[in-house]
Amino acid sequence: MAERPRARGAAVKSEAVAGFDDVTYEEKRKLFEEVRSDLRFPDYLYGCYECGICVAVCPSARFYDFSPRRIAQAAARQDVELIYQQMQEDIWECSQCFSCLRCPRGNNPGGIVTIMREVAVNHGLASAKEALEGYSRIIYKIMSTGTQVSPDMLQPDAFPDWGPEVADVSNQLALWRRALPPETLHTTSTGWDVSDRTLIELYLIWLETGALDMIRDVDEGLHMILEEVMEERLEEEGIER
Amino acid sequence: MPIPVEVMLKKKERFERDPDTIPADFHDELFRLEAEGELIVQRIPDGQPVVEVPTKYGRPKRVPKGHLWHHKSCGQCGHIPGYSTSIFWVMRKLGYDYEDPRDQTSCTAWNYYASATSNEAAQAAVALRNFATAYESGYFPLIHCGTSYGHYKEVRSELLRHPELRAQVRRVMDKLGKPMVLPEEIVHYSEWFYALRHEIAARQVRDFSGIAVTVHPACHYYKLVEGDAIYDPDVYGGQRTAVVTALAEALGAEVRTYSTWFDCCGFGFRHILVQRDFTRSFATIRKIEVMKEEADPDVVLTHDTGCVTTLDKSQFAAQAHGRNVGVAVMSEAQFAALAMGAHPYKVCQLHWHSADYRPLLEKMGIDWEKAWVEFETDVAKLERGEKEFLSWEDVDG
Question: How far apart are CA A155 and CA A167, in angstroms?
């Protein structure tokens, strides 16, 4: 594996960033401009007192080489090289808890990370592909069924660290779901019973807003499957786009 | 550790409502856009009883007692179903009507904060589709998940601020044949429990005076768009959000504090699913162990899907490593239901939880072995085909 240099400015020369192939400065600039042009960006960044409160309250900073302050400062300085390095590495360590909103200056480093992640996904950056490896089942579930996690995901081989109760749930799943008094909760493959019409509306949202297309470059196979599921369902309903 | 309110109020960094820094009330822009025909504001239905509760910057927030459209939570319904069931059960017991919709989707924000495989317009459209559906039903939305609640507040802020986003979302809503609707308040279920705490306490049948509680306040409840969150001068001197704590105190439990109360639980959105070493470590080292050492609670109460999941499920592996863990974790909705006499398995569904809750039940005076036999007896009826499902009447039998 290639050495992971820490780019700290345009003067740093390396063939790899965060272990992934480097790209041209122009490409990095383009990615940053996309982050900066997001309409939320001006509301997320006001400057930095260097007080470190965001780092003190950040859970990810305790366990990773991650710093919300570095995120805010790189964005404020428009440090294109460092921002690219962060997009290839740091952003996936953020917990998205938004504790950093405690910033006395009003910055939202977690929000900047959200935007950077979106851009990373949109451009199929290697870090996004790596971060989302093993996650495609979840994306499939939420986009195709309208609920994020389902009871039948509770499998002992997937969650061995959650204790023996996972196996109990898995073994008794259908029965225990039927024992739930709310009528919407008898499902096993979705969190609750979502109506067909509702799913069609959700598919239209993913297609009309370009959300489905976002995953084309990070997971081409998943994109193809989801596109087929959605378009087939819309066609059955006679809905033209 | 008892709650040191005096110390909190003397701290240099105490929170004070400074009139110069109070954020603008979003209602001004909301009603202006309604007047201009840009969107519909769903009002709490006429005639519904309302409780006014205090928020962080002093603005009173209206919480309707009944006629509520339950915006369910994926993680609650999928992995900790006693959470949702307890919310419904308590509402039924207090006699307030509600709608449990099938035409609701997830807010999809868990995935958004985990993978970013969505965008602002899609997230806003998902939110508005759900709000429009609630509006069409005539019921007022009540949001079960802390992340849905926080995310919807963000969506509202962005929609109110950016006309180009409204235009983009309007095109989508037109395709769906649905109106642009935002409710007059975005209400989290824990706010309903706060507002109704005295009615809940009046129906209490189990004595909780010997129960020690620690509270984990959910990040997305009070850190995202903080002005909507409930802060009560009579709870923590108004220095922390009052939900959960005020309910536990109303039920007679002893709420104890601990130094890392502000820390998140370690959920991490993507981490809980694909990078659980982080989640487990954080939940153990920064939350459960600190609570155990400083407060020694009988139960950890929280008010969000991810927090219950993380703090409950992370203890098993840590226990194997001899860490100082091993404390029951549940939502305050389950806690309140137990106080009102709910069955620990048929209603609160504690068999879906991982950390050992049995010592807590014993302290509450609940014979959990007998309760388990009762649950299994009912399940056997399902297995034999005598019944297809257990009903609300069955679980109170």
Answer: 6
Map residue B7 onto helix, strand or coil: helix
Residue ranges of chain A with pLDDT lower than 50? 1-13
Q: How high does pLDDT run on average in chain B?
A: 96
Within 8 A of A38 by CB-CB distance, chain B residues are 120
Tens digit of each residue's pLDDT (9 = 90 or more) over B147-173: 999 999 999 999 999 999 999 999 999
Instruction: Classify B385 in phi/psi space as left (phi over 0), alpha (psi -120 to 50) or beta.
Output: left
Ranges of each domain in chain B: 26-189, 205-373
Strand partners, B64: B50
Q: For an interface test with A, which of B115, B265, B282, B284 has the most A Cβ atoms less than 10 Å from its Cβ? A: B115
pLDDT at B12 over 90: no
Q: What is the pLDDT of residue A14?
A: 58
pLDDT at B353: 98
**Residue B235 to residue B202: CA distance in whole angstroms:** 20
Is it true that domain B205-373 has CATH number 3.40.50.11810?
yes
B78 touches chain A (CB under 8 A): yes
ipTM: 0.96
Closest CA to B269 of A196, A45, A131, A146: A131
Kindly list the residues from chain B whose CB atom is less than 8 angstroms away from the CB atom of residue A132.
Answer: 115, 117
Are the beta carbons of B77 and A192 separated by less than 8 Å?
Answer: yes
Pick the CATH number of B26-189 from 3.40.50.720, 3.90.1150.10, 1.20.1050.140, 1.20.210.10: 1.20.1050.140
Distance of CA A187 to the CA centre of its chain: 26
Q: Which of A131, A151, A178 is the last residue of a domain?
A: A131
Helix (H, G, I), strand (E, B), or coil: what is residue B19?
coil
pLDDT on residue B4: 84
Interchain proximity B122–A206, CB inside 8 Å = yes
pLDDT number for residue A1: 41
Closest-CA distance of chain A to residue B131, Å: 13
Interchain CB distance below 8 Å, A59 and B317: no
How distant is the Cα of B392 from the closest Cα of chain A, in angstroms? 5
Domain assignment of residue A100, yes or no: yes
Q: Report B:9-68 residues touching A (Cβ under 8 A).
A: none
Residue A20 belongs to domain spanning: 16-131
d(CA A58, CA A38) in angstroms, rounded, equals: 24
Residues 294-333 of B with CB under 8 A from A: 313, 316-317
Is there a contact between B106 and A148 if contact means CB atoms under 8 Å apart? yes
Span B221-239, pLDDT tens digits: 999 999 999 999 999 999 9
The CATH number of the domain where A29 resides is what?
Answer: 1.10.1060
- Flag if A191 and B77 touch (Cβ within 8 Å): yes
Whether residues A109 and A75 fall in one domain: yes
Which of A108, A131, A154 lies at the terminal end of a domain, its last residue?
A131
Please tell me whether residues A64 and A85 are part of one structural domain: yes
Residue in B74, B121, B354 closest to A165 by CB: B354
pLDDT digits (tens, 9 = 90+) for B316-353: 999 999 999 999 999 999 999 999 999 999 999 999 99
Number of domains in chain A: 2
